[in-house]
Amino acid sequence: MGAVDTGTIDIYEPDRYLDGPPHEVFEHLRRTEPVYWQDMPDGTGYWAVLKHADVVHVAREPNVFSASEGGVVLEDLDPERLAMMRNMLLAMDPPRHVAYRRPLADSFKARVIGGLEARIRMMCREIMERVGEHDDVEFVHDICGSLPSQVIGELMGLPREDWSRIHRWAERNTSGQDPDLARHDPEHDDGDPSVNMALYAIEFAAARRNEPPGEDLTSLILASEFDGAPMTDIDFGSFFVQLVTAGNDTTKTMLSAGLLALLEHPDQLAELRTDRSFVPGAVEEILRWANPLHYFRRTATAPTEIRGVRVAAGQKLAMVYTSANRDEDVFENPHRFDIHRDPNPHLSFGIAEHFCLGVHLARLEGRIFFEELLDTFATIELTGEPCRTRSNLNNALKALPVRLGR
Ligand code: HEM
Predict the structure, then answer these.
(1) Residue 209 — φ and ψ, nearest 5°?
(2) Does 311 map to a domain?
(3) For a tag site, which of 153, 298, 304, 321 has the least CB within 10 Å?
(4) Angle of the 266-274 helix axis to the 359-376 helix axis, nearest 10
(5) Atom in ligand 1 nearest the alpha carbon of residue 155
(6) Inter-axis angle of helices 359-376 and 146-156, to 10 degrees?
(7) Å from CA of 230 to ligand 1 middle
(8) pLDDT of residue 185
(9) Would you state the pLDDT for residue 122?
C-alpha cells in the first residue's frame, strides 16, 4: 500500500475507481478519520462510514438512518424518481419495510432457492457450451452477462423469449457514471430502461391475473398481501425493476471479478481445481475481496453521533462496504485474498433490516457457476487488460478478455 497524499483525498470522484478501489486511501482514513466528510460536486456532501462496526451500527438503526428519506444512492434524486425508488424494498423504512418484506421472505429461503440448482446448472452449461475448443471471449458479457437475468426470468416465470429483452434493459439500467455504458445506442435504445422494464412487468402481471396460478414468484406475489392489501400491477412493476436491478449487475460482477481474483491467485485456483469443496469458501472470499457494490446510502433523521463524530439531521451517509470488508479490526491480513478465510463476516450483502433478500440465490449462482466453469474449461488465461467500470457505486468490470480451453 503506497503513501496517501491527505491534501487530495476524494473518495467520491468516479475516476478514482478506474484502477480499482482506492484501498490505500480507505486504509489511511480508517486510521485517521474513520467517519470522513466528503464533499460532492453538486455542493452537498456525505459522511463516509468506513469501519466495519460503524457500518453495522448504521444499518441496525433504520429509524435514525433512513433508507427512504433520500434513497440509497448519494446523488439526490428528483421528486419523481425518489418517489419511484421509495416503492422499492431497498428504500423503505419500518414499519412499511417489514410489511413488504415478510410475504416474500419464504420464497427466498435457502431451501426454496436450492430447488433451482438443477435449472441454474443447465443455464450455466448452455452458456458455456457456446464456447469452442479454444476460444477468446470477453468474459463479462459473453459468459457472465446473461445468467442473472435468465435466473430471474426463471424465478418469476417469465416466457423464455423475453429473457434477452430483460437482460438488455438491466444492462442499460446501471452504471450511469460510465460514459461507455451510458452511451446512446440508437439501434437498441428504446427509451428509459427502468420505465420499459416496469411497463413490461405491469403488462405481465395483468396477463397472469387471468391465468391459473403457477409455482413461480409472480404467482406468489400476486396472491399475497403487502401492508394489508394485494400489490397493484403498478407496484408489481416497481418491485420487478428492483429485483432485476438488484440481482443483475451484482451477480455478474461476482462472477467476473471472481474469475479475475482467481487468475491473479493461481495457486488458489489450482486448489479449487483439485477440490471443489473449497468453492463455497472461495465465493465468500470473492464477495469480500471484490464486493460488487461499494456502498449504500442512508440519511440521518435526527442529530446523532458515530465514533464521536456529530452527524446532523438530514445529512447523508455512505456505508462503505469496500472499506468495511478490509477493516483490520475484523479481518486478519485484510488485503490478502484467501479462499480459506473463516470466519468471513464481510458486509457485501449489507446487514440487518435490508440484508440482501437474494443472498441465497447469489451464493447458489456463484457456487454452480464456478463448479461448471472449472469442470468445462481445463485452461483459462487472461489475454488482455481487464477494464473496470467508472463508478463509485458499482465495483464492476466491464471487460475481461480471456482464452478458454477445454
Ligand atoms: C452478488 C450478488 C448480490 C449482492 C452483492 C447484493 C447486495 C445487496 C446489498 C448490499 C443489499 C442491502 C441494501 C441495503 O442495506 O440498503 C441488498 C439488498 C437486496 N437485494 Fe441483493 N445483492 C446481490 C444479489 C441479489 C439477487 C440475486 C437478488 C434477487 C434476485 C437480490 C435482491 C435484493 C433485494 C430485493 C434487496 C432489498 C432487501 C431489503 O431492502 O429488504 N440481490 N443486496
Answers:
(1) -65, -25
(2) yes
(3) 304
(4) 90
(5) 30
(6) 130
(7) 23
(8) 58
(9) 97
Domain count, the chain: 1
- Max Cα–Cα distance, the chain, nearest Å: 64
CATH code (residue 355): 1.10.630.10
Which residues have CB under 6 Å of ligand 1? Answer: 59, 67, 72, 89-90, 101, 152, 242-243, 246-247, 250-251, 254, 292-293, 296, 348-350, 354, 356-358, 361-362
- Please say whether the dihedral angle defined by the alpha carbons of residues 162, 164, 166 and 169, taken in this order, is positive or negative: negative
Nearest CA to ligand 1 atom 3: 250
Cα(181)–Cα(371) distance, integer angstroms: 30
Does residue 6 have a pLDDT over 70? Answer: no
| 198 within a domain of the structure (yes/no) | yes
Residue at 146 is within a domain? yes
Instruction: Evaluate whether residue 309 is within a structural domain.
Output: yes
pLDDT by residue (tens digit) across 351-371? 999 999 999 999 999 999 999
Distance separating alpha carbons of residues 385 and 98, to the nearest angstrom: 44
Neighbours of 159 (CB within 10 A): 8
Mapped onto helix, strand or coil, the DSSP state of residue 46 is strand
Contacts of 245 (CB under 8 A, 6+ apart): 170, 173, 174, 194
Choosing from 49, 356, 370 the residue with most ligand 1 atoms within 8 A of its CB, the one to mutate for a pocket test is 356
For residue 84, name the pLDDT band (cuts at 50, 70, 90): confident
Q: What is the pLDDT of residue 175?
A: 56
pLDDT at position 184 is 54
CA of 48 to the centre of ligand 1 (A): 20
Binned at pLDDT 50, 70 and 90, residue 189 comes out as low
The average pLDDT across 16-37 equals 97
SS (H, E, C) 4-26: CCHHHCCCCCHHHHCCCCCHHHH
Q: Identify the domain containing residue 335 by its residue range.
A: 23-405
- Burial (CB < 10 A; 0-12, 13-18, 19+), residue 3, is exposed
Task: Assign residue 350 a region (left: φ > 0; alpha: ψ between -120 and 50; beta: otherwise).
Answer: left
